[in-house]
Amino acid sequence: MNIKTLYLSDLDGTLLQNDASLSPYAVRELNRMIEKGLCFSISSARSTGTVLGILDGLRLQVPIALFNGVIYYDYLAARFVRILEIAPQAAQQVALFMERYGLHNTMYTYRDQQLFACYTSLDTERERQFAAERSRFPQKKWRQVDSLVQTAEKERVVFFSMPGPKDKMDCLYAEMKKIPGITLSYYMDTYEPLWYLEIQAGGVDKRLSVEILREMTGADRVVAFGDNHNDLAMAKGADWFCAVENATADVLACADHVVPANTEDGVIRYLLELEAKGSW
Question: What is the pTM of this model?
Answer without folding.
Answer: 0.89
